[in-house]
Amino acid sequence: MTAKNIMTSRVITVHPADKVSDALLLMHKHHVRNLPVVDESGEFVGLFGVRRLGRLLLPKAASELGRYSLTDLSFMPENPGEMMEHMHEIARKPVADYLEKEKNLLFCKPDTPVPELLKLLEESKDTSLPVIVITHKGKKLVGLVSVWDVLEWIVFITFVKHDTDIE
Question: In the prediction, which pLDDT does 75 show?
Answer without folding.
Answer: 47
